[in-house]
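Give me the fold.
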Amino acid sequence: VGTVHAVEYAELLYWLNRLGYRGWYSMDQYPYREDARGALNASIRFVDGLWKRMRAVGLNRFDQAVARGDAVEMSALIRSLLGLSSR
C-alpha cells in the first residue's frame, strides 16, 4: 500500500477522515514475489505510520491548506509526511 501513489494515498486517508468514514480499510494486494504475510504487515505499518505522521503534523494544517486552495502549502505538508524537507 502506498508504494506507488503515496501522495494520493495520504489524500485518500485525509478525505476519509474528514468525511467521517469509520469503516474498514481493505488492501488489494497480489504479492507474487514477496512473502504475503510480510507484505500485508508492511502495508499495515505504512498506513498506521502515515496516520501518526498526519496527526503529528496536524490535520488542522491540512484543513487550512484545503480551505485556502494552497497547493504549495499542501505540497510542503505532504513532503513532511514522507520525511522530506517541508520547504
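The CA atoms of residues 42 and 48 lie 10 Å apart.
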